[in-house]
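User: Can you help me understand a structure? I only have the sequence.
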Amino acid sequence: MIIARNFRSPRCNDEIDLIGWEDDTLCIIEVKSRTSRDVKPAEAAVDRRKQHEIIKVARDYLRHFDESCQWHFDVVGVYYDQHESSQPVFELFKNAFSVS
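Assistant: Let's start by predicting it. Here is the structure, written out as tokens:
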């Protein structure tokens, strides 16, 4: 169940695309869209710099929850085929990165 979209922290410049619950785990989700996998896959676009920004915003969001709350970072790749009018293809990468 999605509980927040485009969450911005007043302390950070970045945002979290989606936040939602999967059972008792809070999922902090970065969404990347691409028209091709040729140059750089969507999940590769969430590099160390981007992870650092997401982590900063997530820390601010997580202050609203009990410290025992389970959570993780996911990345969703959305691929649109520019030559076809078919539906986009979604790829979910659970636990895509961790706080280190």
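Now, to help you interpret it: The chain has one domain: 2-97. Residues 48-62 form the longest helix (15 residues). Let me know which part you'd like to focus on.
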